[in-house]
Amino acid sequence: MTTYDALMSYQRETEALAQVAGRLGWDQETMMPRGAGPQRAEEMAAMEGVLHARRIAPEVGEWLAAIDEAALDDVGRAQVRHIRRSHERAVKVPARLSAEIARVTSRSQGIWAEARAENDFAAFAPVLAEVVALKREEGAALAAEGDVYDAMLQDYEPGMTGAALDDLFGALRPRLVALREAVLGKPEPAGVSGSFDEALQMKLSRRIAQVFGYDMKRGRVDKAVHPFSSGAGLDVRITTRTSAEDPFNCLYSTIHEVGHASYEQGIDPAYLLTPLGSGVSMGVHESQSRIYENQLGRSRAFTGWLFDEMRGVFGDIGLTDAEAFYAAVNRVQKGYIRTESDEVQYNLHILLRTDLERALLGREFEVEHLEEAWNTRFLADFGYAVDKASNGVLQDVHWSLGLFGYFPTYTLGNVYAGCLAAAMRRAVPDVDAALSRGDTGPATHWLRQSLQSHGGLREPRDTIAEACGTAPSEGPLLDYLDEKFGALYDL
């Protein structure tokens, strides 16, 4: 066995254990008895202790030092790059801290869910303060003398910096705000109406998941407070949620999570249980969920097919033709919830969250002032006041889980999706004809071949550039939004 072989054999066991830990998290948010929370927190801490010990093991460092990377092929060098990055980050974080973060965030998630249901930020604030303190400590350990938020970003988008985000957000905001103001000045299209049986929503969402290529033999669809995708390789699960008054919440949450899951299911099987066997970054991951949800799922072609499907399942939905349905699916309106936001305003929600979490980690204010900071910023950005905590600071699960640095990847994903959609339409000119029949195959096949199958082979921006033939930029996304909503709202 070569040194590289020994490293990869060891790493496969680490990857397998990480999947087991992820399954514990999936169970906690879907099926775990409510009273099991304290025990699950200890289980998660124990698993993280095992994983952390494996990542910092002296032999990993020895193998990495001994490997001659020049003798490896591209795949081998990429595997080593990921393992080295993980090892170097892990050795900076004390084992005690790593386990405590796992323990507290497991407990925090349950407290968040209950506080959200009760619209009671004060009930959540104490445990969130614990999470923030731990993440500040972790960020300081990772950053050394550098920027803490830059260090946190590397867990979700390697190579990204706060300065680069400032440039991107600065380029996006003026055109997004101008488009929003123009659209909101126009009459609002009608939405669907009626009561939509939630069991039928779940049945339709499972059908749509398969329409988008989700392999139910290697996955499943369940319900959760906050939809998510979990797993990799041969076991990739998704969740969604239902509302009797808003079927789009369920259907488009499902399509979004299917985008994530299809990325994981589409990776080359040769990479199973290796660092290349998962999506390369959350920004690239979000490019898949957002292009499935928006450029494909909310397109005029696909909504024409979905209109007929919904009427077949629910009967009268309050809209008489496919064009009115397309307008309803893409309706721009005032609202509080990020996951229910239209494409025009979605990134403005992300800019708000990114600025707040950077300020919180940077000690510009403390957790006790977070709700006030959120409400003040929301009023300034959107022009109306938050009415309750579940529509404001409590709406997202991310901070309860300690995912500081995650939010910007949603906007990065939208930007990447804009680039990918333009490239896909150049490569697959008949994509709309297929979508109008409910056939996503030409689009999803192009995405699988161009991006998904490669997993973590390339760095994030290189992954997008290789698929598109050009470096990623915000231009294609902004042009797409201007064209689509300009036509919808006769601007």
Automatic annotation (TrEMBL):
| Free-text remark on how the cofactor is bound | Binds 1 zinc ion per subunit.
Which UniProt key words apply to this protein? Carboxypeptidase, Hydrolase, Metal-binding, Metalloprotease, Protease, Zinc
- A Pfam family annotated for this chain is Peptidase_M32
Q: Report which reactions are catalysed by this protein.
A: Release of a C-terminal amino acid with broad specificity, except for -Pro
Which residues catalyse the reaction?
A: E257
The GO terms describing molecular function are: metal ion binding; metallocarboxypeptidase activity
Family that this chain belongs to: Belongs to the peptidase M32 family.
Name it.
Answer: Metal-dependent carboxypeptidase
